[in-house]
Design a protein that fits this description.
The protein is α/β, with parallel strands linked by helices. The chain has two domains: about 200 residues, Spore Coat Polysaccharide Biosynthesis Protein SpsA, Chain A (Alpha-Beta Complex), CATH 3.90.550.10; about 80 residues, no CATH class. About 40% of the residues lie in helices and about 20% in strands. It contains twelve helices and ten strands. Strands 1, 2, 3, 4, 5, 6, 7, 8, 9 and 10 form a ten-stranded mixed β-sheet that branches. A hairpin with a 2-residue loop joins strand 6 and strand 7. Helix 9 packs antiparallel against helix 10 and helix 10 packs antiparallel against helix 11. The longest helix has 17 residues. The protein is globular and about 55 Å long. About 45% of the residues are buried.
């Protein structure tokens, strides 16, 4: 490639100085020939990291939460490409170069992602898609966990005029990355590198892991703002099953059963239904189910 585009990396953070330092170091260690800059955005927390020539430090002055923090970082950048990385995730060597090359090889492409390795309790589980692009229909059928926010590389011009910024109205800033990917894929297929180039760390320290009310509210927001989800029967069943599980964890048995019934009507094979009903009946705890799934690199 004769000219490498400049890249600005937005890392939102709250109060995790150790993982944050590892995330920043991994970004700065990328073997990337173009200009690379990091913007760390503190959300509802006092900055601790000292800025330097490659790292800017800001405070989220938009809507409190992950979405507002990401948009604060985007607004501070003038680079051609914008990338995201969560403060507890780590880019692997070669991640940025591989994605920039893949994006440049697809005329008109605006958005790139890659496979991940989910790390839980010291064990890494690769999550691959087995394809070179992600279409809108793919993301309706499945959330596709490998299309993770820490893999995102986006044309800044498309974010500002086309795809749009991260939506700050989503409850709890949950599923904001799925919403952004759906909006992007509706315009143009997402360029995808099927190599685990990001380590995504799942642990109990996640600020979003067990916020069940926010999970339920954000899923209902997604159904309202992306009505095509309900038109894909397996995709709809998956979301309804997740809602059933969330309400079961909230001990709202009526809501859990109502969403379980909707899931079964969309797909009788939806695997989340019996699990959600078991949690609703008190046979097993939701946190126990989630820990078991996470240990094998899966979520609910």
């Amino acid at each position: 490639m004769s000219e490498w585009p400049s890249v600005g990396v937005v890392i939102p953070t709250h109060d995790r100085p150790g993982p944050l330092r590892a995330a920043v170091d991994a970004v700065l260690a990328q073997d990337y020939p173009g200009r690379l800059r990091v913007v760390v955005v503190y959300d509802q927390a006092e900055p601790e990291l000292e800025p330097d020539g490659s790292v800017a430090v800001l405070v989220n002055e938009r809507t409190p939460g992950l979405a507002g923090a990401r948009n604060t970082g985007i607004g501070a950048l003038e680079d051609e490409l914008v990338a995201f990385c969560d403060d507890d995730d780590v880019w692997r060597p070669g991640k940025l170069r591989a994605q920039v090359e893949a994006l440049a090889g697809r005329p008109g492409a605006e958005f790139a992602s890659c496979a991940i390795a989910v790390e839980c309790d010291g064990t890494a589980h690769p999550r691959l898609a087995g394809q070179s692009e992600i279409r809108h229909a793919d993301l309706l059928r499945s959330r596709m966990v490998m299309v993770h926010s820490s893999t995102y590389l986006i044309q800044r011009a498309a974010l500002e005029d086309g795809i749009g910024l991260v939506d700050e109205t989503i409850p709890g800033s949950q599923n904001e990355d799925w919403d952004l990917a759906l909006r992007a894929a509706r315009r143009h297929p997402i360029v995808y590198v099927d190599e685990p180039l990001v380590t995504v760390r799942w642990s109990a320290s996640s600020h979003y892991a067990r916020q069940w009310q926010a999970r339920a509210d954000s899923l209902r927001w997604m159904l309202a703002h992306h009505p095509d989800i309900a038109k894909d029967r397996p995709g709809a069943a998956r979301v309804y099953g997740q809602l059933s599980f969330a309400y079961a964890c909230l001990r709202q048995r009526g809501e859990a059963c109502r969403w379980a019934w909707r899931a079964v009507r969309s797909s009788a094979r939806e695997p989340r239904v019996p699990v959600a009903l078991a949690v609703a009946a008190g046979v097993v705890r939701g946190d126990t189910v989630l820990r078991h799934l996470n240990a094998h690199g899966h979520g609910i």
